[in-house]
Amino acid sequence: MNDIPATLRRLARQEQFLEVLDRDEAERRFRRHLEMRPLGRETVTLAQALARVVASRVIAEIDVPGFDRASVDGFAVRADDTLGASERIPRRLTLRPEILTPGKVPLLAVEPGTATLIATGGMVPRGADAVVMVEHTEAIDEGNTTIIEIRRPAAAGQLIAFAGSDMARGETVLHAGKILTSREIGMLAAVGCASVEVWRRPRVAIVSTGDEIIAPGASMRPGAVYDSNAAILAAAVEEAGGFSCPLGIGADDDAVLTRLVEEGLASCDMVVLSGGTSKGVGDLCYRAVARFTDPGIVVHGVALKPGKPLCLAVTGGKPVVVLPGFPTSAIFTFHEFVAPVIRAFAGLPPERAERLPAILPLRVASERGRTEYMMVSLIRRDAEGALAAYPNAKGSGAVTAFSQADGFIAIDAQAESVAAGASVEVQLIGHAHLADLVMIGSHCTGLDILIDRLHAEGITVKALNVGSMGGLAAAKRGECDIAAIHLMDPESGEYNRPFLTPALELVPGYRRLQGIVHRKGDPRFEGRSIDDTVAAALAAADCLMVNRNAGSGTRILTDRLLRGAKPPGYWSQPKSHNAVAAAVAQDRADWGIAIESVARQYGLGFIPVQDEHYDFVVPKSRLDRAPILRFQALLADQSIRDALAALAFRM
Predict the structure, then answer these.
(1) 98-112: per-residue pLDDT in tens?
(2) At what angle do helices 626-635 and 445-456 cross, to 10 degrees?
């Protein structure tokens, strides 16, 4: 049995006290105990050399090409023999009885008045100092002799690649520090190198921790979370130039975590754990690292959001890092503190951060006391290319927050908010890829079908799921091509059209059936009418509802059904149909309003209420854009209609 009193006493002693440092000081303390240089050399074959870093200067031991060679198909000649040649008065040369194909060594010299047939790449014979293209000649048979008429004069050296003209013996082919791409690997092969000396890739042990973590592919259980951090971090290690060594999932057990850390230190150059660095009941990673004293933990707590509970340690010259468990926090702190160390160990230069100016379209709040790095998506605001930076509101626990962001903005530690319309600087994550079509608004699985088709046709789409009201506001500001909305006017009951301005056009989409979702077999809902269902739910004090966020079309419909009542669960306000269905399916609530397709996915009972109109709003100034025209055409495509119908959506 869990010893709750003992756990509370341990927490009260603050065994995991955080000394919160600013970012730069944390980085200085960490690097002070590390040698930020390559770990060692190794020799790899060319097949293994892609993206590796050259450790030593490579010098050519041969000439490339190693002989004078023809650059075209034609005839090897003496340039003097072609002087004055023209279409009207060609120069006549006797063809030598030899054909020089690549790899064949010439046996006959080109004497004055003669020529030798030579192929591209063939070795130029003794005596020849030029090559004439076959197109500028004509062959004439005269008995046992073939005469070549030259119709254009050739300059000495014409169409010959001389020995060493590409790379000369003793010349530097590649300098140390060069990152090998297919081009450099081709150069190495050309000078005869079958292998190359490179800096060794640092081996990075990766451990995910927590009793709640299960491996992808395992059967899901209540309260469990699939281990996304290990996959993200393994790929990020490879991107940074390291070699990832996943050691699996460590339970919240001191002995298990200590064993995994020791295993990582014995076989790797760095150990990275994720999933427990703050003062939580189940977080034991700190204690697995706290026993090191050479110097051991040098940072535990950084004034960053996301990433405050980061723990940085060094033992035996090897970094041991405990990242926060939330995916966005983990990958962000990895890129800030761990990736630069891996790059240095791998011989790679520091990564250059690219920054772009943008406008923040929405006011955002921030927490004073620590610098906040807010993930944003970039979209074009106008034809001139000005950018808007849309905040990602999913939070550090969302797997997609980092992966779907184009970059991030830094909010000063003393700022409580940033005003809408403020100029900001966006530090890019990788490179900015501005989409052909920007959609902002409410998400729907039906919309995913349309986006998949657009992608298949080569039209890139950026979809920001900010809700119907957010999408409508973006369309009014001219910051999107299409806003997906399903807003019902509370007074008229009409969907979407009442919310338009003269500058906006409504493109009809499809219908989604809204209804009450409940667990099958629940007698309070099974087989009842809408009015009876609502009455029964309101009459039962233990009947818990789950609502939707204010401003959503579903919330308006719910409030109309409740007629002012606010039953238990009313203030539970998730932002999606899926969240409502999940709450009911997991017995955290008994009923709510969602669409039929979602009820099917979760195996829930469904009582129809009314059709919801899921439509698209387009700024009139953008209606003639090719991607928008294609989007409208797809709405009429029968294959798209069939796919939507399979999801219970109706046109």
Answers:
(1) 999 999 999 999 999
(2) 120
